[in-house]
Design goal:
Largest interface: A-B, 14 and 14 residues
Order of helices and strands of chain B: HHHHHHHEEHHHHHH
Helix content of chain A: 10-25%
Helix content of chain B: 55-70%
Shape of chain A: elongated
Number of strands of chain B: 2
Distance between the termini of chain A: 66 Å
Radius of gyration of chain B: 20 Å
Largest sheet of chain A: 3 strands, antiparallel
Oligomer: heterodimer
Largest sheet of chain B: 2 strands, antiparallel
Strand order of the largest sheet of chain B: 1-2
């Protein structure tokens, strides 16, 4: 019958009205992100607070956007010192290839998604500054210590920040 | 108090009601549309956003009033007043209750429609004076649409006038007092003879008051803001206040003509008369809510479809219906 579509439209919008809002009041309420959500890259740390990064440069070579860079000073005994682990988040496409390629599980895609800044200079920053890089031996020791218990660290864990 | 003083107070009361209506209806519109679209509407200013429109009024009052260089200054300044004043005048004949009304006009219905028909002139002035293509389009549409739809609007309510035998809105309400068989209210909407009348009236009224889906003269998605494009600050505020006020007036007329005005069925007259204005306002806001429901549901029609509907359908149908209901009323009485 002519006009039934109009009635049906009214019925549908009435039903919507009774469904109640589905809005999340964002700054006050936040959705929990899926475990594998990929946002800003962040470094991971050992329990004692020293970074897991060994400055092996794998992530730097992997990054398709060339936005990661590690400036390293190598001491005479071949230990490395990270002057800065540079990260230009303004150009990052959050592909996560750096995290996948990291042989030491030293970085992660954090769940920090509030990335707006007021100063363009803040779109690039150092993940690590002026710290000693971890050694392969340290990783081996930590792994051995953690061996009996299953590895609980996952990419979904939120980092401590820069 | 002198007659002039009383009249001035009445005008001020009408103005106050108009402004209050504007504030309440804009908040209501945002909330109703929000919930129809599964959103929340305003939430931050005041409890559940109740103060949002008050803040908006303050904003409009304090904003810079821009007059573009190329506008026709005189017309540009007068147009908001020409739109606003008829809307205010239209409150004069509305019967809020037995005693609560500005004037008791014998031609109340005709007066209200006549005054409302001045609004498109102001809109056309605003559109022309703005010296802007979108504004002019909006103004021309207002002229085409609203003037065209005054014909079916007035024709559609003639059966009621014929039955009641008066254009006095108070008399029309009194004719709807009481119940049929002690159950059904004697409202005209309950009378099958007036169902087509109601349909014709509600469509024409929506178009006449520029309500979405018939808001051709604003049509944000087509012509920016139509006639209001170049207006800012309180001039814009006046244009929109009058639009909401017209919506209120048409809703109030709907209540008066079809839903028994300030009367309530089943309740003794002496009791219901004491809170007549409250009943009237509640009914009116219910009608407004339905108008907003329609607004939140349907997409805008095209201007040519609209004109076709008016000239080719509504006017002939209302003419035929006047003849038919005239015969029925004559035979039954």
């Amino acid at each position: 019958m002519w006009g039934m579509g109009l009635i049906n439209g009214l019925r549908i919008s009435w039903r919507n009205m009774r469904r109640g809002p589905i809005t999340v009041k964002y700054p006050y309420e936040k959705l929990t992100l899926p475990e594998r959500a990929r946002w800003a890259v962040a470094p991971k740390y050992f329990a004692d607070g020293s970074p897991k990064c060994t400055a092996c440069m794998t992530c730097v070579r992997t990054c398709p956007d060339h936005i990661l860079d590690i400036y390293v000073t190598t001491a005479e005994d071949k230990t490395k010192h990270i002057d800065s682990f540079f990260y230009e988040i303004g150009a990052c496409m959050m592909c996560g290839l750096c995290v996948e390629s990291c042989p030491f599980d030293a970085i992660l895609m954090s769940h920090d998604y509030e990335l707006a800044v007021t100063d363009p200079a803040d779109l690039s920053y150092d993940l690590l500054t002026d710290v000693d890089a971890a050694t392969g031996a340290r990783h081996k020791a930590e792994k051995a210590a953690a061996e009996p218990a299953p590895d609980t660290s996952t990419a979904g864990e939120v980092s401590v920040g820069e | 108090m002198s007659a002039i003083g009383i009249s001035a107070l009445k005008v001020l009361a009408a103005l106050g009601l108009m402004l209050a209506n504007g504030v309440v209806m804009i908040y209501m519109l945002r909330k109703v549309l929000g919930h129809l679209h599964i959103r929340l509407g305003p939430m931050h200013v005041g409890w559940k956003g109740t103060l949002q429109t008050v803040m908006d009024v303050l904003k409009l009052l304090t904003k810079e009033d821009i007059t573009p260089r190329a506008v026709d200054r005189w017309l540009f300044r007068i147009a908001p007043a020409v739109v606003f004043i008829p809307s205010l005048m239209a409150y004069a004949a509305l019967p809020f209750s037995d005693t609560w009304r500005v004037t008791n006009l014998d031609t109340g219905l005709l007066y209200t429609f006549a005054v409302l028909s001045l609004v498109p002139m102001g809109i056309l002035m605003a559109g022309w004076a703005s010296n802007n293509k979108w504004s002019l389009l909006g103004g021309m549409r207002a002229a085409a649409q609203q003037i065209a739809y005054e014909v079916p609007l007035l024709l559609s309510v003639l059966p009621i006038v014929m039955l009641v035998g008066s254009m006095n809105l108070g008399v029309i309400v009194e004719a709807q007092r009481g119940t049929v068989l002690a159950v059904i209210p004697r409202w005209f909407i309950m009378n099958p003879l007036f169902w087509p009348t109601f349909l014709l009236y509600s469509v024409s009224a929506l178009i006449e008051t520029n309500q979405t889906p018939f808001d051709m003269s604003e049509a944000e998605s087509e012509i920016v803001a139509g006639f209001a494009t170049e207006y800012s600050a309180m001039k814009f505020g006046l244009l929109f206040l009058s639009e909401f006020s017209n919506q209120f007036i048409v809703a109030a007329l709907t209540v008066t003509l079809f839903f028994g005005g300030w009367t309530l069925p089943w309740i003794p007259e002496a009791v219901s008369n004491s809170f007549g204005p409250v009943v009237f306002m509640l009914k009116t806001y219910l009608v407004i809510a339905v108008m907003m429901w329609i607004r939140g549901t349907f997409p805008r029609v095209r201007i040519d479809q609209l004109m076709q509907l008016g000239w080719q359908r509504l006017i002939p149908i209302s003419l035929v219906w006047i003849v038919f209901s005239g015969i029925v009323i004559k035979v039954w009485s």
